[in-house]
Amino acid sequence: MLLASPYHLSLDPAETAAGRPFPPLGPLVSAAELQALGHSVAFYDASLVSHVETFREALRGHQPTQVAILSDPHSVPVKMCTLGQRDAALAMVRLSREAGASVLVAGPDPTDHPELYTAAGATHVVVGEHDGALLDWAEGRLAPGIAPRRSNTTHLDTLPDPAWELVDLGAYAERWRRRHGRWELNLSTARGCPYRCNWCAKPTWGRSYHVASPERIARQIFAARARWQPDGLWFTDDIFAVKPPWLSAFRALVGSDPLPFRCNTRADLVREGAYVADLAAAGCREVWMGAESGSDTILAAMDKDQTRADIEIAVSRLRGAGIRVGFFLQLGYPGERYDDVLATLDMVRSLRPDEIGISVSYPLPGTGFHDRVRDQLTKANWSSSMANEVLFAGAYPQGFYEAVREVLRAESAWWTWRPGSSRGALRRTGALPWHAVRWPVHRARMRWLGRG
Ligand code: SF4
Predict the structure, then answer these.
(1) Is ligand 1 within 6 A of the CB of residue 292?
(2) Dihedrals φ, ψ of 36, to 5°?
(3) With a 6 A CB cut-off, is 197 part of the ligand 1 pocket?
(4) Less CB within 10 Å around the terminal CB: N or C of the chain?
(5) What's the CATH code of the domain at 243?
């Protein structure tokens, strides 16, 4: 049996530029589940290979009768599902069928568009969480066709640890350290998210939320530290430590010398001082927050259930605890006008986050946002992660959002600059004169295209 993760970093220019590749966590848990049932599993990790054709060689080498192509539901780049990644996954389905194997496919895009994968030849397509269906398929109990959504796993402690030994972790560590001088391994404490932001796609677990015990996560960290020696961790959870008592217990378990980590959070969680103290003591060094907009009107339209005041308090608390802050920002949400964009600029300039990720709003299938703009869609998916295309008839032209983005990137390049000798630090230093020259041009373009 061959398990394959179809995500190609080479087809993702945004993540390639970030230089922080992560191994496919979800599929590695699936591999461990199959191993626990006694199956012999080979693993193909497309992340660091440059071309889909490499998969043909893997099929020749392993001669599998069963191939499972599993996209990682923990990975944001996977959930974006650009056309390039989809084409690669479909090509892997075709190659597997040409090799005569039974082919199961699962993940966010197969959940949203199962018919694309059956048309490419997949014998089984799983909608939603795939664990149970995968095990049935491996044992010959799964009927061919589209396997409907099943109940989600509720007790995450029953899952095995990821089979890290099946991928080349050294190659990931080498890429990280060459670029950043350190390496982070990815871990997950939970599946799903209980919040209701209406643009956020939740194809695999819906709005359910289940978390592993703090004891299990602490044990996984100790084991990973002893065996692989990462310099830090990235928790892939949509939102880390949704429940404050969980965080307190976790903090007590990881001890006084915890492995540093980064994670995603929400402003309404980290506006509480006791919570932030636990977060810092547990090892958190950086959080990424879906700030999205500086306009309360737009935050309300998104059902974000947080306000700009929450964001301001949260940043102040985090800074006080020595935790770096990254903002995810969105431009072009329906109803956003020029003044709302100026409010976002004002918020970012006043709070000066340490990192910024800026995107135009992306209507993903299954979301309230997608339903709202369904009749105005000009295209369904971005062609690549760098595309940042406005996919529906919005208030302003594409060039306006590009200009706003470049203004923010240029300004933040100055306040986030730190001296350093890593490749990443040298690149940032080298980019400063470029930003200085371009900033007035982008600002003039922003004003011109946003006029009226
Ligand atoms: S945007 Fe974040 S907090 Fe909101 S629903 Fe999605 S994962 Fe949850």
Answers:
(1) no
(2) -65, -25
(3) yes
(4) C
(5) 3.20.20.70
